[in-house]
Design a protein that fits this description.
The complex is a heterodimer of chains A (296) and B (236). With 296 residues, chain A is mostly helical. Chain A has eleven helices and four strands, in the order ααααβββααααβααα. In chain A, helix 2 runs parallel beside helix 4 and helix 5 packs across helix 6. Chain B is an alpha/beta fold. Classes of the chains: A mainly alpha (296), B alpha/beta (236). At the A-B interface, helix 6 and helix 7 of A face helix 2 and helix 3 of B.
Chain lengths: 296, 236
């Protein structure tokens, strides 16, 4: 039983990071109907920005850690907006496949630029939050998991508020449903799309920092696996659906962690894709998604 | 108020509008009738900026607005209720209306407009918390018109407001259109397949056929015109 709770905590912690990344995929899919494969590399850039900002102070404090996150989130939001503006927007009227291939190109560009600028070798990530261990019975809750969980919950709650209760959030939902009708309301679709990219990228940066804080070795290819897994999480939850992405992330994180702790541990990285195949076979709209009939 | 001069629109190699001209005066109701595929919807979409025009001018209050982006045109007070209503089915009725007032910064003005829309369409008030996709066709049309009114337009374009709606509601909606025109002084350009109704409430009408205006006259005269009668008014 102890082991079960221990693994559950680990799973929730990893899962909430997947959730943060998955939301970025789903947000962009919601307004533009394509998968931004460069998203996982924005996650990596977020971790590196966190490292550079975190190195400027040797003390670790909660406030300091939050500042590091805020800084990296702002930088990555700008990066996301730039990627959309210069790589995707010129191709807006082209087929989705063209944009998809461009996204893969941007992803490769960021990974290789990362190796050039940050260096190809793994680097240690500074301990930006104070560490402490809480123990209940045999179950250990490290401050790392606690930080990851709390930050992820706060960010996702904030996002949900933004999307459901604010004017720009409502405009995002309107534009996602029907961009033409949204423009007839006076909504500048380009601004909404930029905002969406900024938002998703900021969440990816937060995810990257949390990831680097929990697994403190970072390199320019660190985004590939978590990115793919989070993409699967977004599909699992129902692509385009924000609570779905969060749920998908948690489900995959927990299952993956339990598999890692079992005798099938070598399969842990494959399990996400097994889930992907199963969901596509039996519930292609995803856990929380609804299939929309294609209008003719 | 609105003057369209020699407007041309192509879809690829296909010519949808071959240089049409029309005019809507301040406070007027003008209708554009014609068969399916004549170019009625294309005309409205080109005026509101959803489509690029290849040639011609759209003068709104003396200014050429052809090829301005749609969100800039709304800002000038020109609102378009598109074909098929295009309500945001995933948002609530109230959220839809609030999106209509997207450009309005003044909360008081928004409140006033909301009150006016709810006064005009009490059904929307009853259903304001409901997700718009669950409304009936007629209610969705009311919502689409209400949403357009939320931007406090000076000029309103309606595309087939009677389409897919129960006959009883069609009558109500057309009465409301006249009321909006009379009470708020909003000029209206109405596109309709139901030519009878459209000519009844409008002052002036244009008949569109395969991208050209083939007839224009006072609506009352058009209703007596034998050509219009046989082609659009059911032949009697």
């Amino acid at each position: 039983m102890t082991e079960f709770f221990q693994q559950l905590i680990n799973g929730l912690s990893v899962g909430s990071m997947y959730a943060l990344i998955a939301i970025g995929y789903t947000l962009v899919y919601g307004v533009l109907r394509f998968i931004n494969f460069a998203h996982s590399d924005v996650f990596m850039v977020g971790a590196f920005m966190g490292m550079y900002i975190g190195r400027t102070s040797s003390k670790s404090s909660i406030g300091g850690g939050l500042m590091v996150m805020a800084g990296a989130m702002v930088i990555c939001a700008l990066l996301g907006i730039l990627i959309e503006r210069f790589a995707y927007r010129p191709l807006r009227s082209r087929s989705k496949l063209t944009v998809l291939i461009t996204a893969i190109g941007v992803s490769l560009f960021l990974e290789n630029a990362g190796q050039l600028i940050f260096g190809p070798n793994p680097q240690p990530f500074p301990n930006i939050f104070p560490s402490h261990t809480f123990q209940y019975d045999q179950v250990v809750l490290s401050s790392k998991d606690l930080v990851v969980l709390v930050v992820a919950i706060v960010l996702m709650g904030g996002l949900q508020f933004l999307v459901l209760k604010t004017k720009i959030g409502t405009a995002m939902r309107a534009a996602a449903f029907n961009p033409q009708a949204a423009s007839l309301m006076g909504i500048n679709i380009n601004n909404v799309i930029s905002f969406t990219f900024g938002l998703g990228s900021a969440l990816a940066a937060a995810g990257g920092i949390l990831w680097a804080y929990k697994f403190p070795k970072i390199d320019p290819l660190m985004g590939v696996m978590p990115g793919l897994t989070a993409f699967v999480a977004a599909v699992l939850g129902g692509i385009g659906n924000i609570p779905g992405a969060a749920l998908g992330g948690l489900v995959i994180g927990i299952i993956e962690t339990f598999v890692k702790g079992s005798r099938w541990s070598t399969w842990s990285e494959a399990i996400a894709f097994v889930l992907l195949i199963l969901i596509l076979l039996f519930r292609p709209a995803g856990l929380l998604g609804t299939l929309q009939p294609e209008k003719v | 108020m609105l003057e369209v001069k020699n407007l041309t629109v192509n879809y690829g190699a296909i010519c949808a509008l071959r240089g049409i001209s029309l005019e809507v005066k301040q406070g007027d109701i003008v209708t554009l009738i014609g068969a399916n595929g004549a170019g009625k919807t294309t005309t409205l979409r080109a005026i509101s900026g959803l489509l690029r025009a290849q040639g011609g001018e759209v003068l709104y209050e003396g200014r050429n607005i052809a090829n301005l982006p749609a969100h800039k045109i709304v800002e000038l007070g020109l609102s378009h209720v598109p074909e098929g209503r295009m309500i945001f089915a995933n948002l609530t009725v109230l959220e839809n209306l609030m999106m209509g007032a997207y450009l309005q910064k003044d909360r008081r003005v928004i409140e006033q407009e909301l009150e006016y829309v709810f006064g005009t369409f009490p059904r929307l008030k009853e259903r304001q918390k409901q997700v718009a996709g669950t409304l009936s066709g007629g209610e969705q049309q009311m919502l689409a018109i209400g949403r357009a009114l939320m931007s406090k337009p000076k000029f309103l374009m309606l595309d087939e407001p009677s389409l897919g709606i129960a006959p009883l509601l069609v009558k109500t909606i057309f009465e409301k259109i006249v009321e909006i025109n009379r009470q708020q002084g909003i000029s209206i350009l109405l596109v309709e397949q139901n030519a009878n109704l459209a000519l009844e409430i409008s002052r002036y009408g244009y008949v569109l056929e395969t991208g050209r205006i083939i007839l224009q006259d006072q609506s009352s005269a058009l209703r007596q015109n034998p050509q219009v009668k046989s082609a659009y008014l059911g032949g009697v």
